[in-house]
Amino acid sequence: MAAPLPDLSNEWDKEKLRNWMANAKRQKRDDVYHAAFRQLCRIEGRNIDDPLESEFAVVMRALEEALSEESGTTKRLSRTRQKLNRVGVRQTLADLAMKPTPSTGFLKLVEFGMAKELSAEALVIKYSSEFTPEVVEAARKRLADHGIS
Question: Helix-strand-coil percent breakdown of the chain, rounded to 5?
């Protein structure tokens, strides 16, 4: 019988969370790995007051962590971060949702099984009142086109 899932919701030490992830991977405990991974990503948005901006910071960290783990080297979404600084989070999200083709980041999140909750498109739908109907529909279509409801 597997040990119960630990409550990591109050763990804010990145190194401890990375240790949880490494141990979970070694013990083939995907549930513990994902809990530690999500908490590690939550650290990024912890001190941001705007809920949408906070959640997008988590999304960015999740994608950077996943890409870094996949490649074995540190990966940063530099171009997206530059755009955030230029136009803000809402316009960045709208532009990502309205792109005629999915971003590489979106496709990676689909591959990693995280697009339903951690993609720009998911945030557009969650905060649909802050976007135009066209942007929300584009986000819904993108998710649906990739089998995500």
Answer: 70, 0, 30
Distance CA 118, CA 61 (A): 10
DSSP string computed for 90-149? HHHHHHHHHSSS--HHHHHHHHTT-HHHHSHHHHHHHTGGGS-HHHHHHHHHHHHHTT--
- Taking each helix axis from N to C terminus, what angle separates 104-111 and 51-71, rounded to the nearest 10 degrees? 70
pLDDT tens digits for 87-119?
A: 999 999 999 999 999 988 899 889 888 889 889
The radius of gyration of the chain's CA atoms, rounded to the nearest angstrom, is 16
| Mean pLDDT in consecutive groups of 10 residues from the start of the chain, 149 residues | 86 95 94 91 91 93 87 91 95 96 89 87 96 98 94
What CA–CA distance (Å, rounded) separates 67 from 61?
10
What's the half-sphere exposure (Cβ side, CA atoms, 13 Å) at 144?
Answer: 7
Prediction pTM value: 0.83
Give the separation between CA 31 and CA 138, rounded to whole angstroms.
Answer: 32
Reduced to 3 states (helix: H, G, I; strand: E, B; else coil), residue 53 is: helix
